[in-house]
């Protein structure tokens, strides 16, 4: 059973029956469920299916050069041709030859009205250095496939930057050839809940939110959870035990996505040092990398992969643009797993520490930014045009500094100043926090248009405790609201 993905399923079926040649590029974070989606939607309908060989093993061998990798990819492609029914197959010497052979196979299977469906998975792994893969694929599509009204080609890639650069934004022979691009995103909280229900898990929404803070709604990671264990026991099992399946996932993830994984990890580790993020110049200093076009490509690849975000803090200009680590899995791994490998860690013992409490607060802010649509619906502004941003203001001798978790700038002259609080009970505003809210509201009011107003907004788990200061908040968004649609 497929959880969520209703729009994607509807679109894929529409394209299948379009009666014209289709080239569909599906991309998204590794382990997000791209292959599963295509396999399930088109079960029994795929004419030819192939998946590239992972480069992880190749990188572990000193003598395994680009030529050897290309030969193995071609040999593996040849095997897929055999399995699909091509007879008397010899391993092709080039990707041009390989795609000529694929054309021969598809011609044999070409019925008068039947759909010919080609599915190439992890396509970026086929594009080894100096292999000529793109030349072969371009010749296949432009010279044969696009002229066949009954041909549908689906390519999947976990390297979003590769798919975007080489296919969707291609300026060469494949310019404007992709007929549909489809980005597959991690599960929302509601989809995580649906997943757990489908597996007969008995788990609270409070714990589902925590699992999202750690795993980021990645379906493949959720599969490691056992229904007979509590959340804490599951976290210990998948991250901290001797044979924990996600203990080395961080290194595997980057090795499988990037040709320069160590550089990418260096950037991610640097960004993890500051929750609000760094400017480009600060990040260069933190990483020791050179300011160049290559560095820009690294950042672009990490942004397109969903690992980091680029944002301008509220009220700031372009020169204050920041890069921030946003991937929940990477944040959790670097804070709690990386330096504890080989140690016997009990998450139940760590949960009460200040380090975990601080992390939960920041991680819940991430959850909120990933569920802005649900927050807007709860505020009754689903159809109002908005912009969302963090706001961090450094203090000086003249002015106080402050940080606001989320500012929602609305077209109807309202600014929602959102405070995110992840608690196991109701949130109570005390006298000191009352004055903090007043100061923040005054600061925000001083930089917005005079015709606009500020609404203090609380986003929390179970609600606001009524007391003499509870009226400070104009509106309250509950954890349950984040599970909407």
Structural summary, described in words:
Strands 2-3-4-1-5 form a five-stranded parallel sheet. It has a five-stranded mixed sheet with strand order 8-9-10-11-12. With 485 residues, the chain is α/β, with parallel strands linked by helices. The mean pLDDT is 92. The protein has helices at residues 6-16, 34-41, 56-59, 66-83, 95-109, 133-143, 160-168, 189-198, 205-215, 219-222, 231-240, 249-257, 261-271, 280-287, 293-304, 328-337, 347-350, 354-369, 372-379, 431-445, and strands at residues 22-27, 48-51, 116-121, 151-157, 180-183, 308-311, 322-325, 386-393, 402-410, 414-421, 453-460, 475-478. The protein is elongated, with a radius of gyration of 25 Å. The chain contains 20 helices and twelve strands. Strand 10 (414-421), helix 20 and strand 11 form a beta-alpha-beta unit.
Helix-strand layout with pairing:
Blueprint (H helix, E strand, L loop, with lengths): L5 H11 L5 E6 L6 H8 L6 E4 L4 H4 L6 H18 L11 H15 L6 E6 L11 H11 L7 E7 L2 H9 L11 E4 L5 H10 L6 H11 L3 H4 L8 H10 L8 H9 L3 H11 L8 H8 L5 H12 L3 E4 L10 E4 L2 H10 L9 H4 L3 H16 L2 H8 L6 E8 L8 E9 L3 E8 L9 H15 L7 E8 L14 E4 L7
Helix pairs in contact: 4-5, 5-6, 7-15, 9-16, 9-18, 12-13
List keywords for this structure.
485 residues, alpha/beta, Rossmann fold, Arc Repressor Mutant, subunit A, 4 domains, 5-stranded parallel beta sheet, 5-stranded mixed beta sheet, 42% helix
Q: How many structurally independent domains?
A: 4
Binned strand content: 5-15%
Spell out the CATH superfamily of the largest domain. Answer: P-loop containing nucleotide triphosphate hydrolases
* Average residue pLDDT: 92
Major beta sheet summary: 5 strands, parallel
CATH topology of the largest domain: Rossmann fold
Q: Give the strand order of the largest sheet, numbering strands 1, 2, ... along the chain.
A: 2-3-4-1-5
Helix fraction by DSSP (H/I, runs of at least 4) = 40-55%
Identify the CATH class of the largest domain. Answer: Alpha Beta
Q: What is the global morphology?
A: elongated
What is the CA-CA span between the terminal residues? 18 Å
> Mind telling me which CATH architecture of the largest domain this is?
3-Layer(aba) Sandwich
Radius of gyration: 25 Å
Structural class: alpha/beta
User: Low-confidence stretches at least 5 residues in length (pLDDT < 50)?
Assistant: none
- Separate helix tally: 20
Count all strands and give the number: 12
């Amino acid at each position: 059973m497929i959880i969520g993905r209703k729009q994607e399923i509807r679109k894929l079926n529409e394209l299948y029956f379009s009666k014209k040649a289709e080239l569909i590029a599906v991309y998204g974070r590794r382990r997000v469920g791209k292959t599963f989606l295509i396999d399930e939607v088109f079960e029994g309908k795929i004419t030819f299916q192939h998946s590239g060989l992972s480069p992880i093993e190749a990188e572990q061998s000193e003598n395994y050069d680009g030529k050897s990798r290309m030969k193995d990819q071609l040999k593996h492609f040849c095997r897929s041709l055999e399995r699909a029914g091509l007879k008397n197959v010899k391993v092709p010497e080039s990707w041009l030859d390989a795609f000529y052979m694929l054309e021969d196979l598809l011609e044999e299977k070409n019925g008068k009205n039947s759909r010919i469906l080609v599915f190439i998975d992890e396509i970026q792994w086929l594009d080894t250095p100096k292999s000529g893969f793109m030349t072969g694929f371009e010749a296949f599509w432009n010279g044969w496939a696009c002229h066949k009204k009954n041909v549908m080609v689906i390519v999947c890639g976990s390297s979003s930057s590769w798919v975007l650069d080489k296919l969707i934004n291609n300026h060469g022979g494949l310019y404007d050839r992709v007929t549909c691009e489809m980005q597959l995103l991690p599960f929302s909280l509601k989809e995580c809940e649906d997943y757990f229900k489908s597996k007969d898990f008995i788990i609270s929404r409070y714990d589902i939110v925590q699992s999202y803070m750690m795993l980021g709604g990645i379906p493949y990671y959720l599969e490691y959870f056992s229904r007979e264990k509590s959340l804490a026991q599951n976290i210990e099992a998948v991250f901290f035990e001797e044979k924990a399946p996600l203990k080395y996932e961080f290194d595997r993830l980057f090795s499988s996505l990037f040709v320069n994984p160590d550089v990418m990890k260096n950037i991610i580790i640097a960004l993890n040092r500051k929750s609000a993020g760094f400017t480009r110049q600060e990040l260069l200093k933190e990483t020791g990398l050179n300011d160049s076009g290559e560095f820009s490509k690294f950042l672009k690849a990490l942004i397109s992969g969903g690992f980091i975000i680029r944002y301008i803090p509220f009220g700031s200009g372009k020169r204050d643009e920041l890069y921030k680590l946003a991937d929940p899995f990477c944040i959790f791994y670097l804070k709690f797993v990386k330096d504890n490998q080989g140690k016997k860690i009990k998450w139940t013992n760590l949960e009460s520490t200040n380090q975990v409490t601080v992390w939960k607060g920041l991680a819940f802010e991430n959850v909120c930014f990933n569920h802005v649509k649900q927050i807007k619906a709860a505020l009754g502004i689903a159809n109002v045009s908005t912009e969302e941003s963090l706001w961090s203001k450094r203090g000086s001798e003249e002015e106080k500094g402050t940080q606001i978790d989320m500012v929602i700038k609305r077209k109807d002259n309202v600014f929602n100043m959102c405070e995110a609080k992840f608690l196991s009970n109701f949130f109570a505003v005390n006298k000191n926090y009352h004055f903090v809210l007043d100061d923040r509201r005054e600061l925000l009011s001083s930089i917005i248009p005079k015709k606009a107003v500020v609404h203090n907004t609380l986003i929390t788990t179970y609600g606001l405790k009524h007391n003499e200061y509870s009226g400070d908040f104009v509106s309250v968004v509950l954890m349950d609201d984040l599970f909407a649609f």
